Amino acid sequence: TGLVKYFTKPVIELKQYKGLVAEKVIREVSEDEVNQDVDNARKRNARNIEVTDRPAQLEDTVTMDYSGSVDGEKFEGGTAQGHRLKLGSGQFIPGFEEQIVGHSVGDEFDVNVTFPAEYHAEDLKGKVAVFAVKLHKIEYEELPALDDEFAKDVSEFDTLVAYKADVKARIEERNNQAADAQVEDQLMDTLRANMEGDIPACMFENEIDSMARDYEQRMQAQGIDMKMYFKYTGMDEKSFREQFKEHAEKQVKNRLALEKVVQLEGIQVTAEEVEEEYGKIAAAYGLEAAAVKGQISEELLKKDVAIRKAVDWVKAEANITEKPYEALVAEEDAEKTGSPKKAKEEGTREDLEEEKPVKKAVPDKKKTETAAE
Question: 74-91 burial by CB neighbour count: b if 16+ within 10 A, else e?
Fold first, then answer.
């Protein structure tokens, strides 16, 4: 039987929650961004054409067998047959893909590489390896023509002009959603700073438990158990839980602060709003509303809706000023040292990205099975 953690809900005080200050970054959509999005759609709809009259080159997709060894001994994950690889994709370790270039179908040859010092498998870090390769097929991508027919194939629009206009509108919506999320982050940062109260540590631990369980389930859905996860990330149970700590603390404090706003402002949730929320959840998961009601209590759902209404209330009462994206870039550029352009691009992108609790990348199942990757 598991241990149930009980705690007394803390008494929370908010020094200020009205008239909070935030800044919304307005980012105009450039023609280059629209063209990039359209180009990505063309690549997704490209045809693979088999090559028979030339050697492999960068951007080709090859089908090959390979068998890797270190000091003459084969190693786990170092062998595959019929593997497809796009040359130049960076899917394999440095130096591997470049040595495929120049070879033709039917060629058998060795690829000599050194595993990076930071490679995920401890027993291969920094090791020199030889891969025996046989090349079976070479293909290149043929992009569809950029015309009205393409627009009809990939969208509901009859012309390329109309399709591009829709692409621009969707990018604008994404930018606006990202900017709104950043505004909410700023407001919640201020709300937490204005909050007073002794929060029991077990509330944070419970939140970490919930986040860890959710993450484990997502890994298992990809066919990755926690033993495999720990092997390929170099983590253990303690460091795995530690990565959730900061986000868990924010989540707990956010909820307590917003519950206080609900109380102070007398925010109410109607029966119609609860039914609407049940409907949204049911639609999202392709279920009947009755099935959702059997899984989520009305009381719990009502609390969640009240919290979201509190966020909207704080936002509506806030003093939000708008700033052009270019002005933000210029300010950051002036503050950065080293490579201004790189710092500028990375910093502003990071500022406009949604906050994520887990920052360590996890290889998908396919990649964990292939040591060359």
Answer: ebebbbbeebebebeeeb
d(CA 104, CA 98): 14
Which pair of structure tokens corresponds to residue 275?
A: 């039914």
- Mean pLDDT, residues 264-283: 95
Q: For the domain bounded by 47-142, which CATH number is listed?
A: 3.10.50.40
Q: Is 208 exposed, middle or buried (0-12, 13-18, 19+ CB in 10 A)?
A: buried
One-letter amino acid of 85: L
- Which residues sit opposite 128 in a β-bridge? 114
Residue 361 pLDDT: 32
Strand ranges, E, within the chain: 13-14, 21-26, 47-50, 61-70, 73-86, 108-114, 128-142, 195-196, 319-324
What are residue 144's DSSP bridge partners? none
Please report the pLDDT score of residue 111 as a whole number.
Answer: 97
Asked if 211 and 178 touch (Cβ cutoff 8 Å), the reply is no
Q: Is the dihedral of CA 106, 107, 109, 112 positive or negative?
A: negative
d(CA 253, CA 117): 40
In CATH, what number does 13-28+164-367 get?
A: 1.10.3120.10
Q: Where are the domains of the chain?
A: 13-28+164-367, 47-142
Q: Is 60 exceeded by the pLDDT of residue 367?
A: no
* Average pLDDT over every residue of 297-321: 96
Q: What percentage of the chain's residues is helix, strand, coil (to nearest 5)?
A: 50, 20, 30
Token pair listed for 213: 């369980």
Confidence label for 9 from pLDDT (cuts 50, 70 and 90): confident
Tokens of 118: 């930071």
pLDDT tens-digit series, residues 195-249: 999 999 999 999 999 999 999 999 999 999 898 889 888 899 999 999 999 999 9
Can you tell me the distance from the alpha carbon of 360 to that of 354, in angstroms, rounded to the nearest whole number?
15
Residue 214 CA to residue 163 CA, distance in Å, equals 38
CB atoms within 10 A of CB 28: 10
* Residue (of 296, 300, 310) closest to 268 by Cα position: 310
